[in-house]
């Protein structure tokens, strides 16, 4: 996330999401935040994930640009009221509801 560490910790705690993540990297954990790919590289390294298996799921142009800079797939999300479809132009696909993510992941290579 491009958010700071404390803000991210508060959000993750309030929404009880910690168990859903292998690794959380904030803007404070990397030298350069999005749109640079540093956060993606750090997550991949720390969680031992090959970039060829990584997907950036995001709702901003910075997310899409970071994914492209890292050479990974980008999935644009439109359920956030701030998300604008034109900002997600670099996405490999766009989903309009979180429930669509699993289907897209399972069917993307077909």
Notes on the protein architecture:
By secondary structure, the chain is an alpha/beta fold. It contains 4 helices and 3 strands; from the N terminus they run H-H-E-H-E-E-H. Helix 3 links the parallel strand 1 and strand 2. The chain is globular and about 30 Å long.
Set out the fold topology.
Blueprint: H1 5-14, H2 38-46, E1 55-58, H3 61-70, E2 73-77, E3 93-95, H4 99-107
Parallel strand pairs: 1-2, 2-3
Give a quick precis of the structure.
By secondary structure, the chain is α/β, with parallel strands linked by helices.
| SSE run | HHEHEEH
Strand order of the largest sheet: 1-2-3
Alpha carbon gyration radius = 14 Å
What is the overall number of helices?
4
Assign a percent range to the helix content.
25-40%
The termini sit apart by: 30 Å
Q: Per the principal axes of the C-alpha atoms, what is the gross shape?
A: globular
Pairing-aware structural class of the strands and helices?
A: alpha/beta
Low-pLDDT parts are none
Write down the overall mean pLDDT: 91
Report the biggest beta sheet as strand number plus sense, adding barrel if it closes. 3 strands, parallel
